[in-house]
Amino acid sequence: MAVKVMIPTPLRIYAGKRDSAEFAAATVGEALGRLTGEFGELRKHLFTEEGKLRAFVNVYLNDEDIRYLAKENTPTKDGDTISIIPSIAGGSTRAPSGR
Amino acid sequence: MANTHTLWISAHLAEKIRAHGVETYPNECCGALLGRDTEVLRNQADAERKIAAPREVLKLYPLANRNGESPRNRFMVTADDVRNADLEAQSHGLEVVGWYHSHPDHPARPSEYDREHAWPWYSYIIVNVNHGAAEDMASWRLNDDREEFSPEGIEIRQHAAVQIER
Question: Domain range spanning residue A72?
Answer without folding.
Answer: 2-86
